[in-house]
Amino acid sequence: MIKIAIAGATGYTGSELLRILYHHPEASVIRITSEGRAGSHITEIFPEFRDLYDLTLEPFRGDTFLKDVDLVFLALPHGESMKIVPRIVNDSIRIIDLSADFRLHQGDLYLQWYHREHTNPDCLDDWIYGLPELHREKIREARYIANPGCYPTGALLGISPLIQKGMVNLQEMIFDAKSGVTGSGKSPKAHLHFPEANEALMAYRIGEHQHTPEIEQEIAQQAGEKVTINFTPHLIPMNRGVYNTIYAPLVQQVSTKDLLGIYQTFYGAEPFVRVLPAGSVPNTKQVRGTNYCDIGLKVDPRTGRVIVTSAIDNLIKGAAGQAVQNMNLMMGFNETVGLQFPALTP
Q1: Beta-sheet strands, E only, within 194-313
Q2: What is the DSSP letter of 303?
Q3: What range defines the domain where residue 102 resides?
Q4: Within-domain flag for 191
Q5: Is 192 a domain residue?
Q6: CA 277 → CA 156, 265, 272, 324, distances in Å?
Q7: Which of 112, 254, 288, 332 is the least crowded, having the fewest Cβ atoms under 10 Å away?
């Protein structure tokens, strides 16, 4: 039984970590922190954990945070993890960061896309990008994992088989993505207020969303060359879920059946990627509350493009579930432990 600490346990991602880890037979959460709610019992914030957890939120203190802990989840706002990581790095602790602070390999990109200087750029090479379907063996040996963003997870799982087979024009791909409102976090924001978000649909941060370089980085690493994509996110009026529609020009004529065969081979052994049969498309409702990514595709011979669709739960496969999947790999557990549950329906 490994002992877990969660920094920033009062957000949506923190609560999902607590929910998943409660059922994990090899892990026990012994410490949770919050700067704003220190001293509160966890059930004051999340009543759903009544009679399940007896934990009181603590302020973060570097000297006590790591006591008796084997692995740390950092579920903090962007920009906060880089401040505290230098205080908790040691040879006996493994760290999984769910923010964006260590996802990009180039420190200067943080100023461009996140509008802040990275305070610890020299350590970026020490962090492994935690998408198991692409980096499983590195994750097994890693001490520090940068958990991917929700948009990039669905986008990369959707496009990677085509990238590795060299089947699409790398410079003309379009990623059209939609996210439920929990993707913006728990902190109140005017545009997420119910009257503003309900019965509404809008694109945002067109051409400047911070997940763009993350997607480009991982595609370029697979392709062996620099890649520039169009990525446009949209906010949709539902609680959770991310849906990616990817338009990619094919470099040769190929059928939907042939591409499905490539995807089925690529993901055949993956426990959390489901390639749907021809004629089927993913639905966020069918992955809600799960660690699955569902993928569908269709070739449009009239335009010479393939249209790939993928659906994930942004809080699970896009955050907490993927973090636990990474933990399982790092600690030598079965990769699926604590994560095999069906979708929440209706």
Answers
A1: 202-203, 230-235, 242-249, 273-275, 293-300, 305-312
A2: T
A3: 2-126
A4: yes
A5: yes
A6: 20, 13, 16, 28
A7: 332
CB count, 10 Å around CB of 300?
12
Q: Which H/E stretch holds residue 307?
A: strand 305-312
Give the total residue count for the chain.
346
* Domain at 170, CATH number: 3.30.360.10
Tokens of residue 266, six digits = 């690529």
The rounded distance, in Å, linking the Cα atoms of 55 and 29 is 9
The pTM of the full predicted model, rounded to 2 decimals, is 0.96
Relative to beta strand 174-179, strand 242-249 is antiparallel
Task: Say whether both 38 and 105 belong to one domain.
Answer: yes
Is 12 inside any structural domain? yes
| Alpha carbons 343 and 320: distance in angstroms, whole number | 15
Catalytic residues: 150
Look up residue 190 and give its DSSP letter. G
Does 62 score more than 80 pLDDT? Answer: no
209 touches 233 (CB < 8 A): yes
3-state secondary structure of 73: strand
* pLDDT tens-digit map of 116-169: 999 999 999 999 999 999 999 999 999 999 999 999 999 999 999 999 999 999
DSSP states of 23-51 = T-TTEEEEEEE-SSSTT-BHHHH-GGGTT
Please name the residues in contact with 288: beta carbons below 8 A apart, sequence gap of 6 or more. 240, 241, 313, 343, 344, 345
Backbone angles phi, psi at 163, to 5 degrees: -65, -50
| Vertex 165 angle, CA 161 and 168, to 5° | 85
Distance of CA 19 to the CA centre of its chain: 17
Does one domain contain both 80 and 156?
Answer: no
**Co-location of 186 and 304 in the same domain:** yes
Task: Answer for the pair 335, 328: CB distance below 8 angstroms, yes or no.
Answer: yes
